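Re: the 210-residue chain
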Amino acid sequence: MDQTAYFAQMREKRKTEILISARKMFLTEGIAAFNIQQLARNLDISTVTLYKYFKNSDDILKALQKQILQDLQTDSFSDTIPAGKDSLDSLQQLLETFYTEILKRKEDLSLLLLSEWYLPSKEAKTASILLPYINKLEPAFFSTLQQAQTEHLLKTNFDISDSLHFFQQMNLTMLEHIALIKKTQYAKKKKELLQQIHQLISSYILSIKK
């Protein structure tokens, strides 16, 4: 490895260390209480060194936001449609598997939602920053609904486009609810949350079933 490549590798390593430490601080102390000087102390580096990587706390937050969304793009947790007894059973399993995985990403959801509220925006926000999670699931969801319609399992007046819109809003509301649960309360509320999710999914399936 030549010297240029070595220094580039070390710079990326240091940048990763900064983001890991900053992420922990944001989630533990909150974005408003975040302090660059404390971050530097936690990393045992000078603030001058830290500023060589990030201009300010907003810059760090944007980097974390970008990192989470990029990781989501390469994640395949919603690509496979479960083999159920019929398409509606597959749909229920798909949604429950989706939320099982989503709950593992609770910290990512919290950080994204907080960053959306905190970071200044020059343009009006037209969609929730959590929408990419729904978009990841949408192809499998749409395909399963189409199959259920082909199998004549859905109500006669069922409209897939309307259902997709309702599905999107329902899931965004649930994702925001998960994101807003305090870290200190999450372990205690997880079981109750799983029950709520199961009831929500079951009610949705029942509402579209013939």
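Residues 130 and 175 are 7 Å apart (CA to CA).
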